[in-house]
Amino acid sequence: xxxxxxxxxxxxxxxxxxxxxxxxxxxxxxxxxxxxxxxxxxxxxxxxxxxxxxxxxxxxxxxxxxxxxxxxxxxxxxxxxxxxxxxxxxxxxxxxxxxxxxxxxxxxxxxxxxxxxxxxxxxxxxxxxxxxxxxxxxxxxxxxxxxxxxxxxxxxxxxxxxxxxxxxxxxxxxxxxxxxxxxxxxxxxxxxxxxxxxxxxxxxxxxxxxxxxxxxxxxxxxxxxxxxxxxxxxxxxxxxxxxxxxxxxxxxxxxxxxxxxxxxxxxxxxxxxxxxxxxxxxxxxxxxxxxxxxxxxxxxxxxxxxxxxxx
Length: 311
What we know:
Blueprint: E1 5-9, H1 33-44, E2 48-53, H2 55-68, E3 81-86, H3 108-113, E4 123-127, E5 130-131, H4 134-145, E6 153-160, E7 171-178, E8 184-195, E9 201-205, E10 211-213, E11 219-227, H5 230-246, H6 256-265, E12 270-276, E13 281-282, H7 289-301
Parallel strand pairs: 1-2, 1-4, 2-3, 6-12
Antiparallel strand pairs: 4-11, 5-13, 6-11, 7-8, 7-11, 8-9, 9-10
């Protein structure tokens, strides 16, 4: 039986947060957010975890992970597999030059590309600093199981906007538009998403710069995607085109939504929109930390998760 792979984007610097969110112990026994994601993924039937990290903390993180999860078993009793892949600024196709002043890598789609030699089955991409909840992983695993050896369709796990807000301030969210058949047509970025003083949920539309009303139950992207392995070859071709136009830029990045949007608009792919009932939370801001700590403590008290997660 095919076991999907979980691809964890953990290379972010955490500049707004003030440190490495990937390593921050937030659970009652020092669990990280990634620990909870992996716990839920294993319960949902995943068989391998691929981490995208930066070279400067790879050794520290790999040592921690392999020790922590050494006794974790998949549903079929086999050991959970791990691979670590690095995302660096200079990991680009031959023939391209870098702007010597550029510091950051090339974004989330570039990060996924780094795993092309490590993944050969349907896989799910998540952020390392986001909590998605058990049902989200079950939904994603079912999609992957039904798309083994297929091509032409990807999926996004969407979350209701009002279940993804931060108590520490406005957030950016990509609002999904889709057909009556549940096929994604667009993801439009909105900034400063929050309930205004009059109780109405509003956001700044990135395309019009206007502040617009958002329906609380609209689905948004939290960067949880389901892909088949052909994503790598299609993305590689688009990355070459991106570098031709933006290779000397200091800050432009190559994002997953850009790739999916291009493939949809050019008739190369469809993308299913599957809705999660879960409430997202994460550590976007440093001020979010105590709130997240309290939520994990509550989940442990309710018996949703054991504490410690791993023994």
